[in-house]
Structures are given as structure tokens and as C-alpha cells.
What does this fold into?
Amino acid sequence: MELKRVVVTGLGSITPIGNDAETTWKNAVEGVSGAGPITHFDASLFKTQFACEVKGYNSADHFDRKEARKMDLYEQYALVAAMEAVKDCGVDLESVDKNRIGVVLGVGIGGIHTFEEEAGNYAINGEEMGPKYNPFFIPKMIADIAAGQISIQYGFHGPNYTTTSACASSTNALADAFNLIRLGKADAMVTGGAEAAVSESGVGGFNSMNALPSGLAAWADLTPCTRSQHATTTPHTLHAPSARAATALSWARVPVYLSLRNLSTPRHAAPRFTARWLALACRPTHTTSLPHTPKASVPTS
It folds into this structure.
């Protein structure tokens, strides 16, 4: 069997350094950092007090109030980025076989905000009110809901699932989408990853396993000028990155999506492509420890 060639046809993102693909790329090239003090909850008692948060996001810009209440924040991010990628690819959705278009999404945790709210409400009011849960609790929380919602949004009936493999989740999703097209199982795929885990239980849980910097140690690695820029939430450049700062910067809300297709797909169905996809490999690493470096032996004489 001849393997199909795969190309990237559209891009979409909502990240700590930009709420669309163009802004994200521009700020990445210019070395803009997405790190800043945590604003989504009071982190004053937490070991880690800064993270890479999405800035300036307003759900009302993308969804009506009723629909937004049915979706966890990570799901909203996923849909916003996916809609940008689908629009960017320029495909005519009326002329394609939607049974041959699918969605593979990488998610590490999923609706952790929703879980906190519902479990917290029961912990506080359970004895008095009994087990009263929102009927959207489970649909909002499960990791697979974002991939499902993207398919519902566009009527895609091709392969649809979520990969969850810790920090390699999105990379595995990209690999799976790539192979589904390459092996002829689909003509096009929407793929990428989404997360919104900057929350009390998210940061607290990773703190407890020593996977994030403690206190403001990593924050101190930034120059005074850069810290001042963080405090005023103006765009800034990370002048003095370190291993500790890089660890903290990886704790972010970063949905990024690609629209992939078979290169032989008729041009009227997919009029543009961004890049040829040649190969992909991923290797997960341990999240809570650094490689052991043996101490050098000291001569005794």
C-alpha cells in the first residue's frame, strides 16, 4: 500500500502569548513570554504563584451565555482554536465528504474546573442538601468532550477520539491524525491539544509532586525590568530564562490546532496548505525529576 502524503492546511490557537495563530507566532518569534502572576485564583498560599495563562479571553466573544455554561473552559479554548484552524484552511464544507474528516485531540486532564466546582459544592453542602450535581457535570468534565464538540460543530463523522498521555498528549494526537491520513483512513483531520488546568487543584496537585518551582524562586530568575512588565501585564520578553523558569512556563493553557489533509485531495476541497508533514516522533519524559548527574570523584591525595 502506498502511504499518502500529509500537509498542514490551517492553523488555530489561543495561547498565553496570543489569542490567535498569527499573534501567537509573532510573539513567539519576538521572544515574548506568556508567564505572569496567577490571576485565575488566589495563589498567595501556594508554592507556585505564577503560570502561563490565556489573557483577555471573553467567552461572550465566541459563544452565547447559555452555550458557554455547558462547556468547561478547556472545551471553550479547544473550540475557539479549532474554528480558527478550519476557517484558515479555506475548505468548502459543503463539497467534502464529512464521513472522511475526523478529530483527534490531545488532553492531559480535561475539565478540572468543572470537577472542582461540583465536588466542592458537594463537600460544602452535601450533608444538608444531599448529592445535587449539575446535569452537565460529566459531559463538561470528560477529556473526550472537546473532540466530540468539534465534530458536532461541523458534522465531521470520521475518526474521533482523545489521546491522554500526560505531557505527550498533543504530540500523540498529531501522530495519530497524521497516520490516519497517511494510511487512508481519513481525508482530513482536525488535531492538536487543549488544556485549562491553572486552578487550585491543578497547581496544588503538581506542587505536591514537586513538578513545579516552589515559591517565587523561578520568578526571581527574571530581570527586575521583566518582573515589572509582568506585574503590569504588558507584553514582555523573558531576558534570563533558566531551567526553573522553563519548568514553570510549561504550566500553561495552550490549545493549538492544525488542519491536516491528504496532499492528493482535490484543490477545490482544500485550496491551500501551509507545510508538508514529513515525519513525527515523540518521547515522553518523567515530569517530576531531573536526570541524575553523578558527582565527580575527588582525589584523596
Notes: The longest helix spans residues 112-129. Residues 223-254, 281-301 have pLDDT under 50 and may be disordered. The beta strands are 6-13, 35-37, 50-52, 101-106, 160-163, 188-193, 256-262, 275-277.
